[in-house]
Amino acid sequence: MKVGIDLISFYTPQYYLDLKTLAGERGVDPDKFTIGIGQEKMAIPPPDEDIVTMAASAAHPILEQAGREGIELLLFATESGIDHSKAAAMFLHGLLKLPTRCRAVELKQACYSATAGLQLAASMVAAQPDRKALIVGSDIARYDLRSPGEPTQGAGAVAMLVTANPSVLALDPETGLYAEDVMDFWRPNYREEALVDGKYSMRVYLTALEECWKQYTERSGRQFHDLARYCYHLPFTRMAEKAHIRLAKIAALKELTSAELETEIGDSLRYNRITGNTYSASLYEGLTSLLDHGADDLVGQRIGLFSYGSGCMGEYFSGVVQPGYRDHLFTARLRALLDGRTELTYRQYEDIFQLGFPTDGGDHAFAQYRTGPYRLAGVSQHKRLYEKVI
């Protein structure tokens, strides 16, 4: 029996900052961003949008198409938590009006946790094929102004419906795993902005990739040429390119041509380049991008996926694209969203950045901006107030 992703949907805020604008304000060559890290734009959530509303907006088209019946597991992956006790999954469960017979939990391990959710969901469905699971990854990547991480900021959410006999991607059972306690990226509870040792984090990322790949190939018997396309965790698109070049050297003992690099990972980078880092959603943003943009029919092709979370946790796994997968994508809907976004001025970007979420314990109503079907209306008596707007 096959188990995997039956539907996958990505959502990103409807505002963005062009990195050429940021480069102008910072007095640097725009090529440092557009070529150096491979990023063009970064998504900016308005004050009435957070990880819950983004997650709900990502899941909305899935529930419109597949309904809610049979969903007995809701896993919310994020490193942008909104409460120390109540899981973001519970807010989402209420917004989406999911069945009361449902396990709902929040998962955290930096950018890796959506993969943990996907694998847990696959195990549940394998044991109970008539049941379904909804996995979401939703994050806001935020760094200090004028810090090296600033141009990699972004925001977005992915939702995946996991079922037996999936319509999009059937997961292979073999995986490679790597865990090591490191301090390459972290965000203490007293900070809104993350801290990162960028060069060290890149080294750990590549170490985890090599170790995970070694295990994956030993357990599966597959080699580099057995995978048609590759998706990577995307802190920025140039990181995926570095990772794939390294993998080709150690796994296939060859130098990739630029044409090979473009064929094997190029389509998976298109969305991230114009949204920025989406943390727990980024690997699956890449998968969505690959499926949406691939000119070739990928039916029957095996896709390699590398998930990495700073701190550090890595996993290499794969899946096979299913017949008729294009009929189950939300390509036109997402492209319309991306094409219709509003560009911010630098001043608007900084004003939103400095605004932050109220921490005075008072009651606040939030002005309405452009959002998806759900928004954060305000806060009262220390409680977040959400509403459906369309």
Summary keywords:
390 residues; alpha+beta; Peroxisomal Thiolase, Chain A, domain 1; ten-stranded mixed sheet; three-stranded mixed sheet; 12 helices; 18 strands; globular
Question: What does this entry look like structurally?
Answer:
The protein has 390 residues and is an alpha+beta fold. The chain has one domain: Thiolase/Chalcone synthase (Peroxisomal Thiolase, Chain A, domain 1). The chain has 12 helices and 18 strands. The chain has helices at 19-26, 31-34, 51-66, 88-96, 113-127, 198-220, 237-252, 258-265, 270-273, 282-293, 331-339, 346-355, and strands spanning 3-11, 15-18, 41-43, 71-77, 103-107, 132-141, 154-164, 169-171, 176-179, 185-186, 195-196, 229-232, 302-309, 313-321, 342-343, 364-365, 374-380, 383-388. The strands form 4 sheets. Strands 1, 4, 5, 6, 7, 8, 9, 12, 13 and 14 form a 10-stranded mixed beta sheet that branches. Strands 3-2-15 form a 3-stranded mixed beta sheet. Helix 3 packs across helix 4. It is globular. The chain starts with a strand and ends with a strand. The mean pLDDT is 97.
What's the structural blueprint in terms of helices and strands?
Layout: E1 3-11, E2 15-18, H1 19-26, H2 31-34, E3 41-43, H3 51-66, E4 71-77, H4 88-96, E5 103-107, H5 113-127, E6 132-141, E7 154-164, E8 169-171, E9 176-179, E10 185-186, E11 195-196, H6 198-220, E12 229-232, H7 237-252, H8 258-265, H9 270-273, H10 282-293, E13 302-309, E14 313-321, H11 331-339, E15 342-343, H12 346-355, E16 364-365, E17 374-380, E18 383-388
Parallel strand pairs: 2-15, 4-5, 4-6, 12-13
Antiparallel strand pairs: 1-7, 1-8, 2-3, 6-7, 8-14, 9-14, 10-11, 13-14, 16-17, 17-18
